[in-house]
Amino acid sequence: MKIEDEIKQEQFNRPQHKAGMNLIFTANWLLNEIAITLKPIGLSLQQLNVLAILKGQPNHTATVNLIRERLIDRMPNVSRLLNKLMDKGLIKKDRDLSDQRVVYINLTPEGLKIALKGRELFNKVQYGVTDDQAELLNDLLNKIRK
User: What is the CATH number of the domain that holds 140?
Assistant: First the structure.
């Protein structure tokens, strides 16, 4: 459905404004689709992102700063996000003995299991475009962030 029909706006001042609004609307739609997909395992996209980062690290361990740098959603409250995952038993925290300011985050065996299940669910999200169209879209999105 066209963005004009979705938000009940007949015209935009510039094509770039229309594209921006369409991008924001579509991003929110996609986030909702992902949230619905991940609901059975009780994870948010941000939580799955942390687990995926840890899964890709040697020994499934990373510092808080590395996680913060690699998150898709660069939110300021990473500590709260990590605490929620720790409460679920998916990660554990260890302080560096030589520098108490450094905190290592470790993926637990249950966290690894949930990370794998989350990836499986995430991969089921449908985007409605071909691979070639997705590549073109990626190129355009990269240009927006230049």
Answer: 1.10.10.10
